[in-house]
Task: structure prediction
Amino acid sequence: MIAAVAALLASTTPAPAAPAATDPKAPKDFVALSSGDPTLLQEMRCVTPHDFVGERVDGYRQPLCVLTRPAAEALHKAQRKLLHQGCTTRSRTATAPSARFPDNSIDMGTGFDCFDDTLSHTSDPHIQGRQRANRLLLKNTLEGLGFVNPPEEWWHYTFKPEAHPDTYFDFPVSRTSLSGAH
Result:
């Protein structure tokens, strides 16, 4: 009888769950921006409803700026240059550093992620005076270190040469996606 009950339990007990598939990992040359320079400010809106899409962006599990090591090193150099001028950078996504004073954002003429037909353009002729000078400070500093600014968005920069051109990644944005202690 005991054997029959044990056999019955064995046949009705669910099998242990299969191990969960592991999340994809970032390539080894990706790092967390904060690992190289804690003075670089990060406001990762993509993990909040305050992103331009109005909700948390799928795949962003932590408020973490993840980018290639060469891009992180170049942003570190930009930060050093801007600190000497009383400014700092604030990254809102891995591709969107903007200049700011330590206690308040610098006036750039529009807000970050303003998709106006012309005012968002880096060299829009309607942006004059201090606002234009601020945009040019950011542009000249970052471009001098290898970043390229698409002219339609004053806040958007891509580090060149891209380590992984035309590659789309599916790893989640989190520390566990990075190899090593970042």
Observations:
- Residues 70 and 135 are 23 Å apart (CA to CA).
